[in-house]
Amino acid sequence: MHRNSNEFVVVYGGQWGSEGKGQVLAAITRDTLARPHAEIVGYGVRVGGPNAGHTVRAKDGGMVNIQSIPSMCYAHPDEITPVIGAGGMVNPHVLQNEIAMLRDQGFTGKVLVDPNTMVVQQKHIAEEHGAHLDEHIGSTREGVGAALAEKIRRQPGVITIGNWHHPPSPFCEHIEVVDTVRLLNDAEVPIFVEGTQGYLLSIHTSGYYPFCTSRECGPEGILADVGLTPRAFRNPEIVGVFRTFPIRVGGNSGGLPNEVDWVYMAQHHGVTTPERTTVTNRIRRIAKWDIETVIRVVRETRPTCLAITFLDYLFPHTQYVRDQRGLMGHAQDAWDWIQEVEEATGTSVRYVSTGPGQENTFRIDTIPF
User: Fold this and answer.
1) Which domain does 218 fall in, by range?
2) Which residues contact 27 (CB under 8 A, 6 or more apart)?
3) What tens digit of pLDDT does each residue of 141-155 get?
4) Which among 88, 97, 295 is positioned nearest to 194, based on CA atoms?
5) CA 174: distance to chain centroid?
6) Which among 32, 130, 306, 328 is least surrounded, fewest beta carbons within 10 Å?
């Protein structure tokens, strides 16, 4: 049985993470809520763990760094209920801080957490620090890989939210333990799923093992952790997000085709401030656009459409252009380049970002593929 159209969106990264997935999804939820008679409250869903950080602009205009709660919830705290899915992993201390930040934005409900969501313990973090994984594979050493390995081995020390017996924590009153698989499959409101990291960090399919994360980061892998299938929805929107200049975390973190440095970015593209990772604050590695890699990822993940972020890095004169008319009127070269991407991938570009925040992210309409 299919559901109504425009009820289901999953956004995933097509490169090595930090593509701007949260920004794109915040803009999509904004547009959904702006429809006439949109008297709806949707679910914002996330899996993954605290090893993947996101920097997003919140409802009050400030920037927040988060690792667990879906990022679009900070932009729309009154309309989007946060859900942490069954395949998720949480550090209670990180989650407590994020709930406090969410309540600062006006959120008054509860964060819905599946009982099978795993708790990352201090021993997991200590194990990854002791193994010096940051030096070997560029790990953020947040304990997620160690915790997941323990879960897969069915070790007796595994703690999930459903069997967590620690003394009550201040955040406990702000969460509700619920079967999120059943909840989402029975839902009659929009569902927005935010992927973590990027497809080229997938443990099995990226081709970059061991320089990868501990799970699959394509849309099917993300949805398997959530317990959803796009076949349940009549017109699912599966959005692959690609940066014009992809990045990887700093250090010994694996291959990065067409890699450059931040001196090059300053000299050739006017990008004078190096980016830093959300979790570790390390300077990121950066590379030029590689269309062959993009074609490969699109072929293997089959998104229904693409989102292109950091367009202003490649075409500085697009900075803060905020609609299709402005793009076509002031940056024909950028518009032509977008069409070249569509032709090369056989997939329509539906969202473009020309600066930070959802206010600089907008939908465009080109010829459908």
Assistant:
1) 1-354
2) 351, 353, 358, 361, 362, 363
3) 777 878 888 888 888
4) 88
5) 23
6) 130
